[in-house]
């Protein structure tokens, strides 16, 4: 596997492979000696798991890391946990006998990761007690991509059990999204589930786009329901943040749209359309984004009404959701 990864990365003129390691100890020594810009890290390693090594690395020398994982349920569970610890992204490990086409985007992923802003882990005693019994006027739509696994978890930790109906589109493969929803549910006060076609939007529930062949959209006016739309890529993605945002234009005055860290521009056009139609909108600040891509473009297009640092993002989006329809927030 290391030979395959090396051959793919060395073939790209933008990259130089400066070291490789077969164990966590070798990896630690290589990091200290060569100071790489990016590391690819297998979840399965001898003596110490990739997850344990990643946790230690992020505490002592935070840096961009791309995880290499199988798309099994177990592999997806661990990969999502790795991204919550600070890994930038996860690429699928080729199956036995498969061509290296599985790694076709590996070089681009590594190049983009080199630009990411990586910080150390959150203090373990940093907890938020969500305020209950608030009157929410609007539903929440949240989109994210690279670096947003941790950002979404931190945002939802501010949400009370009676939070506004919330839909989330996060760019990840379908098995990862299954694991993501399962991981979030016990960690936050609201109920977190994968969205199912036709589900009503109700307070206290957070629905995650299931991905695969489907976009997560909204349908209805008085009674709002999930619509899983089977269609082509939108803004280069499926599930797409733009698809979700644009599906809510008809009820924009009842929406708060938030955009979190991520590469590219998915969600920017939809956020502009929502704001122009009367929605409240909020973007994650440049200083706290792992990759200031999607929020940056949304801001440039005029779609972002308000900016917030990540540690305040959840509280700010809830405050906007309390804003009476037709009244401007201060």
TrEMBL record:
> Which keywords appear in this protein's UniProt record, sorted alphabetically?
Chemotaxis, Cytoplasm, Hydrolase, Methyltransferase, Phosphoprotein, Transferase
Gene3D superfamilies tied to this protein: 3.40.50.2300, Methylesterase CheB, C-terminal domain
Task: Return one Gene Ontology term, BP aspect.
Answer: methylation
Q: Which HAMAP family match?
A: CheB_chemtxs
Domain remarks in the entry? Contains a C-terminal catalytic domain, and an N-terminal region which modulates catalytic activity.
The Gene Ontology terms for molecular function here are: methyltransferase activity; phosphorelay response regulator activity; protein-glutamate methylesterase activity; protein-glutamine glutaminase activity
Q: What is this protein called?
A: Protein-glutamate methylesterase/protein-glutamine glutaminase
Q: Does the keyword Hydrolase apply?
A: yes
The Response regulatory domain sits at: 1-108
For this record, the Gene Ontology CC terms, alphabetical, are: cytoplasm
This molecule's function is given as: Involved in chemotaxis. Part of a chemotaxis signal transduction system that modulates chemotaxis in response to various stimuli. Catalyzes the demethylation of specific methylglutamate residues introduced into the chemoreceptors (methyl-accepting chemotaxis proteins or MCP) by CheR. Also mediates the irreversible deamidation of specific glutamine residues to glutamic acid.
Q: Which Pfam families match?
A: CheB_methylest, Response_reg
Question: What positions belong to coiled-coil segments?
Answer: none
Substrates-to-products reaction catalysed: L-glutaminyl-[protein] + H2O = L-glutamyl-[protein] + NH4(+); [protein]-L-glutamate 5-O-methyl ester + H2O = L-glutamyl-[protein] + methanol + H(+)
Write out the annotated subcellular location.
Cytoplasm
